[in-house]
Design brief:
The protein is mainly α and 669 residues long. Among the domains are: 194 residues, no CATH class; 68 residues, no CATH class. Helix content is 73%, strand content 0%. It contains 29 helices and no strands. The termini are far apart.
Length: 669
């Protein structure tokens, strides 16, 4: 492995993203897997543009490729490769060759059966159905373990045990239990399991957007974003950190991956931040926080957003609109943090010779904007995501072949299709594994059972503390807040071991019934769970984006993650805002301009006060008491009510006026 100083963004991404930690294989296996990867991408591209195919068949073909390729490209143990020999041809053990070519046969058994036969066997599977279904479940668990690590398949195995032995579960979690045949029937034969919504959305939508992101980056769109961000923000105090925020925000529109975003922009911005004087931990934290925002930045937002649209039965356009303002608040919070840190430390911006030239940048890469603008326009006009992605990829190909510089060639295009498929293998296996969990939840009613239990715990605790609040809040208010808090903690803890998409699906299945019972709008519930799952990427102890950034910054990973969480505190509050004031999401019932204005103004003011409270600087260094006052005022302002906004403004007024007076005095010197 290359040294950190010379490692490319691709090498760093592979090092810290478990979905890309492939084993080393020989040329024959490389060629075979490469052909299958390109064929997988071409299959999805063709179906999105021209094909009409039964949903079960689409998912079956997708999983056949994904699971087979996982057994070829991922070893039994991470970082361990086999030397080519008679029992490991081309560096792949013989048993993995057998499993890789057996998995497509197992996966396609059900899709190739006549629809009438499948319908007749649901609820009464044959022994062959049970045997093939068992083989598929075992294969999915092992493929997910290889591609993603132990946590997700371990969780799925616990759910399977719960489905089988639920009669011995404690209290409200107890259920009659199912035999193995009944369990396999539900998670394999019905649309509630491995062929269900998670795998379907990945096969129909997510794969295409991953390919779009790879090709768009290849033709120069990622570099264009970095150059534009440098021109907009580079010259100001602490310029490289602001460049990191703007470039990561723009790159997030095509990436949707925290780690990919971190290593792509971080390899340029983190050394630049250190050069102008930012501490290594802070430099890494800024990049990790800004890059994590890629998963919540429209229009792509990672795989979870597409699954959200399916769960809610909403047009994807509405999900994009709903996510826009909360994502903007995330970047506003990060921007204020780095700006005040730069002022506090007296850091400079980029020199004129360190910044790209506008004319040269636009002349080189202006055409790269067209595919993204086309994609956004098609989504906002109501086209289906797969159709929008098809035309976005097509536009990337056309632009790539027409560009006068860095022109795309046929081998380049094949490599981009290969890379796109490689990036989608992990999420494909994870989606199938999550289907097992969904199947158990729907079979046992676990979501409702856990909802009742969590609500009862929150209500009991609220009943204890509400009388001590001297009328500040009621038992009902405390119950809702505690339920949200418990759900947020569960999302972050779960996200420490599994990817965002899997975390989102599991927590929505478990937590959504709880929050819906408490009267929260479904879209707000899903956004709440989604955001806290994303925040796990920068929340220690397992903060993958922060650790990737710390490797570039040469800083302590845990301290970088802690600093990243502090920078993202405004984002931590946003999910609570959308629950208490759904108007922030725009496309919700009861939306009004008045409610949106009050909420948005309060959030902006609160974020602008939260930043100095955390950094300890406004016009000058703040005393501890002033920071506490600003922190309380910030929370009051962000709380989406007229009263709290007024209270927060009044609390902050003395400190803000004092700092304004100091600023005026400094300006007059």
């Amino acid at each position: 492995m290359a040294d950190l100083d010379t490692a490319s963004a691709e090498e760093l991404e592979r090092r810290f993203d478990p979905e890309l930690q492939f084993r080393t294989i020989g040329k024959p296996a490389l060629w075979i897997s490469g052909i299958f990867l390109v064929c997988l991408s071409l299959f999805h591209y063709y179906i999105a543009g021209f094909g009409v195919i039964r949903e079960l068949m689409l998912v079956g073909i997708h999983l056949s490729f994904v699971l087979g390729l996982v057994f070829l490209l991922f070893g039994m143990r991470r970082g361990r490769s086999s030397e080519p020999s008679w029992y490991a041809p081309a560096g792949v053990p013989l048993q993995d060759w057998v499993i890789a070519f057996a998995m497509p046969v197992i996966v396609m058994y059900l899709p190739l059966l006549p629809t009438q036969v499948v319908g007749m066997r649901v609820g009464n599977p044959s022994w062959v159905d049970v045997a093939v279904g068992t083989a598929m479940v075992v294969g999915i668990l092992e493929a997910t373990r290889r591609a993603m690590g132990w946590p997700l398949p371990l969780i799925a195995s616990i759910f399977i045990l719960y489905g089988l032995f639920g009669r011995w579960a404690p209290g409200v979690l107890a259920h009659p239990g199912a035999d193995w045949s009944g369990l396999i029937n539900h998670i394999y034969m019905t649309g509630q399991g491995v062929y269900g919504v998670a795998a379907t959305v990945v096969a129909r939508y997510v794969f295409l957007f991953v390919v779009f992101g790879v090709i768009a980056t290849r033709i120069g769109l990622g570099q264009l974003f970095i150059d534009l961000a440098s021109m907009v923000a580079g010259r100001y105090a602490g310029g490289p950190a602001k460049v990191a925020i703007f470039s990561s925000a723009m790159l997030g529109t095509i990436s949707g991956s925290s780690i990919a975003n971190t290593v792509t922009t971080g390899s340029l911005t983190i050394p630049a931040m250190k050069k102008v004087g930012y501490r290594p931990e802070f430099a890494g934290a800024v990049e990790a926080t800004a890059s994590t925002g890629g998963q919540i930045t429209p229009p792509i937002m990672g795989a979870a957003a597409f699954i959200m649209a399916e769960f809610l039965e909403m047009p994807y356009r509405d999900i994009v609109i709903a996510a826009a303002l909360p994502a903007a608040m995330h970047y506003l919070g990060a921007f204020m943090m780095v700006h005040l840190e730069a002022k506090k430390s007296g850091l400079r911006g980029l020199n004129s010779d360190e910044m790209p030239r506008m004319a040269a940048v636009l002349k080189t890469n202006w055409m790269c904007l067209f595919p993204l603008l086309l994609l956004i326009a098609m989504i906002l006009t109501g086209r289906t995501p797969d159709n929008a992605a098809f035309w976005g990829i097509t536009a990337c190909i056309v632009v790539g072949f027409l560009k006068p510089n860095n022109r795309l060639t046929i081998p380049d295009l094949a490599l981009a299709f290969r890379q796109g498929a490689l990036h989608a293998l992990g999420v494909g296996a994870a989606a199938a594994c999550v289907g097992i969990i969904i199947g158990v939840v729907t079979l046992t009613g676990m979501g409702q059972r856990l909802s009742f239990m969590v609500t009862q715990i929150a209500a009991d605790f609220a009943g204890t503390i509400a009388p001590l609040s001297m009328g500040l809040f009621t038992v009902q208010n405390a119950t809702l807040f505690l339920t949200l808090l418990f759900t947020a903690l569960a999302c972050v803890i779960m996200g420490c071991g599994i990817p965002t998409t899997a975390n989102y699906i599991i927590m929505v299945m478990v937590a959504a019934p709880t929050l819906t019972l408490m009267g929260i709008q479904p879209l707000a519930t899903h956004i709440f769970v989604f955001y806290f799952g994303v925040l796990a990427d920068i929340t220690p102890p397992v903060a993958l984006a922060a650790y990737a950034a710390s490797s570039i910054a040469r800083s302590n990973g845990f301290r970088t993650g802690t600093q990243a969480f502090r920078i993202a505190l405004a984002t931590v509050m946003m999910p609570f805002v959308v629950v208490y004031s759904p108007a922030m999401l725009i496309v919700v019932q009861g939306f009004s301009i008045h409610n949106l204005t009050v909420t948005l103004v309060g959030c902006i003011m609160g974020i602008m006060l939260l930043a100095p409270a955390i950094i300890g600087y406004m016009a000058t260094h703040l005393h501890a008491v002033e920071r506490i006052i600003l922190g309380i005022a910030a929370v009051s302002l962000i709380a989406p009510t007229n009263t709290s906004t007024v209270v927060g403004a009044c609390i902050a007024a003395p400190v803000v006026l004092r700092q304004a007076y100091i600023h005026v005095k400094k300006s007059q010197r």
